Amino acid sequence: MTKVEIDELIKRVAVKAALETEGEPEPGLTSEINWPVNATINRGLEGAISNTTKIGYVNGAKGWLIYRGLNCFDLAEKSSFEETTYLLLYGHLPSRAELQGFNDKLIAYRILPDAVLDVLKAMPKTSHPMSLLATAVSALGSLDDEADDISVTNETEIAIKLTARMASIAGAISRLRRNKEPVNPDPDLTHAANFLYMMTGTKPDEASERIMDASLILHADHGMNASTFTTMVVNSSLSDMYSSVVAGIGSLKGSLHGGANEAALYILEEIGSPENVKPWFEKARAEKRKVMGFGHRVYKAYDPRARILGPIAELVAQKNSESQKLYNIAIALEKEVIEVLGAEKKIFPNVDFYSGLIYNAMSIQTVMFTPIFAVSRIAGWTARALEYLEDNRLFRPRAVYTGPIKAEYTPIQDR
Ligand SMILES: CC(C)(COP(=O)(O)OP(=O)(O)OC[C@H]1O[C@@H](n2cnc3c(N)ncnc32)[C@H](O)[C@@H]1OP(=O)(O)O)[C@@H](O)C(=O)NCCC(=O)NCCS
User: pLDDT tens per residue, the chain (415 residues)?
Assistant: First the structure.
């Protein structure tokens, strides 16, 4: 067989195939081209419904967030992140024995393989922690011999592994970028406390642990948000759970989604003082610039998560004058934005507006805010990907093609 023979074969079949498929495109469901265009396009898939779920419910008009029937307010008050993750994954609150078994797994899985730490150490300290998180999860997948076993049983185990390790990875990233060695998890600490310990190297006080736990509970699941949908899309092709979660991390990083917590803090720093809020906001409006930490595709009422995180932010802001200053700017900005955009466009603060203020007051670096979101949202990503896998169908929407369809190929020497 020679290259000339292959060239001739391709030429022969291509000419025949072109002749056999000649004609005008027809509109309809069997085509990506609706010609003439007669499709309704919901930009950003707004309003599109892709599946049913029993995992969680967001009611944007009421400002409700419900996990498996339980209100997020109840869970923030009475539950723990470990218990909430179990609830999302298995559909019921665990018994003492079930929670103990789940905890034992988290303790065992929290320890990171040395190879993952080596990969993180080989990366530049300037990399964004979300990119490092994706790199580390990808490395975990490569190290797991069972990664390609996509049975629900194995993928559930991977979900638990990833829930445990996302916090360990984020902790290690936070330390490595500050030239500090990662610390090993402590089996006697809760998930929230361990996470803070692995970031700071110091066992947290009870108040900090409680705040982190509540924040992790409130971020654990949130309907068909972009990163959850991304994770599900990848998993629906029967890819492995690690690859699906890497994709979810990529989606969460963006400033319209999880990255907004980081972006919101930068805005508060940019504003600089409560007196500067009004002129800053007027300029932002004139420039059609979005105020990060405000607005939501689904909530047209106050974000229930912000209802809890707002007062926590107020409390922790009292820790020092810098945090108090940022909080005062935030309150002034919230008032201004709601006055102008609340009535006009139903824009209110979202979860990312207050979470960043809290983490900042807890002395967590701003670039670590979105990884904290991932440490929690891993629960929702994996629970929903697993639920969908039980009755899987490949996600595959269509696009309306608006380009030419009968262009001539021009050889490179004639272009
Ligand atoms: C979350 C978000 C992406 C939802 O977007 P969406 O449903 O696609 O809504 P759009 O971006 O189309 O916005 C609709 C209108 O509200 C305005 N708007 C939305 N969010 C806004 C914000 N944060 N600041 C100012 N205006 C905003 C848009 O400019 C648009 O106005 P227009 O109709 O006059 O053009 C959007 O509100 C946003 O970008 N918020 C800032 C980022 C953020 O906090 N993300 C975290 C979400 S939890």
Answer: 999 999 999 999 999 999 999 887 776 666 776 655 567 788 999 999 999 999 999 999 999 999 999 999 999 999 999 999 999 999 999 999 999 999 999 999 999 999 999 999 999 999 999 999 999 999 999 999 999 999 999 999 999 999 999 999 999 999 999 999 999 999 999 999 999 999 999 999 999 999 999 999 999 999 999 999 999 999 999 999 999 999 999 999 999 999 999 999 999 999 999 999 999 999 999 999 999 999 999 998 999 999 999 999 999 999 899 999 999 999 999 999 999 998 889 999 999 999 999 999 999 999 999 999 999 999 999 999 999 999 999 999 988 887 888 899 999 999 9
The protein residue with its alpha carbon nearest to ligand 1, atom 34, reads 345
CB 191, CB 379: distance < 8 Å: no
Helices 304-317 and 351-361, packing angle to 10 deg: 20
Q: What is the C-alpha to C-alpha distance for residues 400 and 152, in angstroms, rounded to an integer? A: 35
**335 within ligand 1 shell (Cβ under 6 A):** no
Is any atom of ligand 1 closer than 6 Å to the C-beta of 294? yes
* Cα→Cα distances 338→133, 267, 334, 349, 351, Å: 35, 17, 6, 8, 15
Q: Which candidate, 237, 239, 219, 99, places its Cα nearest to that of 155? A: 239
Q: Is the CB of 92 under 6 A from ligand 1?
A: no
The rounded distance, in Å, linking the Cα atoms of 330 and 322 is: 12
